[in-house]
Amino acid sequence: MRRTFLILSLIFALRCKSKEQTAAPIPPHLQKAVVLCFHDITPGAVRKGISGRYSVSLTDFREILDALSTYKIVSLRDWVEAKDPNDTRPRVVLTFDDGYAAHRELVLPELRRRQIGATFFFYADALRRDKKWYLLAANEQAFDFGSHSWSHALLKDVGYDELFKELYLARGFLETATHKEIKSFAWPYGYYNPDALRAARSAGFAYQVSVDYRVATRDDIAKIIPRYTVFGKEPVAQVRQILGEFRAKMPQP
């Protein structure tokens, strides 16, 4: 019996080693990505001042999607998991924070029409008040869903008990509401510290995002993935500038 166990253990170890050795390396076009962060999308002109700072008009949003037509637009999950490696287009990840009704009513039809992916980050307190997302999220396969905390509070300086509520309980609530595994977490306001990052990992999040305004690399996945917030003022020009910088950093064929 002991001999049989040792033989089986050796076979299992050799198989695992063989898989490690034959695992295909992640190709260069999947090593980096531009991760864009949107907030409200408005059907008409955006409001001026602070209230419109993070709002992008539907017209501008459509123009941004047109500008991204030569890129592979994916959800955060699909980039992290290196999906579709044979598609050699550079990756752009679309993320949407706060669960606005406009994301469901205006954004989703645009994404579906173009057959592109995205990730939506909800904070649980808002999702609780907008149950129209529940059925959609539970039956949606093309998009990824992530947590944005329980109440969208500033979390970088709060104690462990409050972090537990905001992170662990929010993740559990979102998984119950959407019937999906929630792997990603977006830090409210983009603020975090080393203790907060460890708390999020302890709460079960596989990867986290902030708004550090630089191109994401695969090394960031184990730490925190940077995003670019798209602002309401001249958003098309902003995205074009980001893409120009991204292209300059991509490996040449």
Write the layout of secondary structure elements.
Blueprint: H1 2-22, E1 32-38, E2 41-42, E3 56-57, H2 58-67, E4 72-74, H3 76-80, E5 91-97, H4 101-114, E6 119-122, H5 124-129, H6 132-139, E7 144-147, H7 160-178, E8 184-186, H8 194-202, E9 207-209, E10 216-217, E11 228-229, H9 235-249
Parallel strand pairs: 1-5, 1-11, 2-3, 4-5, 5-6, 6-7, 8-9
Antiparallel strand pairs: 1-10
Structure overview:
This protein is α/β, with parallel strands linked by helices. It has 9 helices and 11 strands. The strands form 3 sheets. Strands 1, 4, 5, 6, 7, 10 and 11 form a 7-stranded mixed beta sheet that branches. Strands 2-3 form a two-stranded parallel sheet. It has a two-stranded parallel ribbon with strand order 8-9. The termini are far apart. Mean pLDDT is about 85; it is low at about 5-15 and about 15-20.
Summing up helix and strand content along with how strands pair, one would put the structural category as alpha/beta
**The biggest beta sheet, please?**
7 strands, mixed
Count the helices. How many?
Answer: 9
Strand content: 15-25%
β-strand number: 11
**Poorly predicted ranges:** 4-14, 17-21
**How helical, in percent, are the residues?**
40-55%
Shape: globular
> SSE order, as H and E?
HEEEHEHEHEHHEHEHEEEH
Task: Name the average pLDDT.
Answer: 84
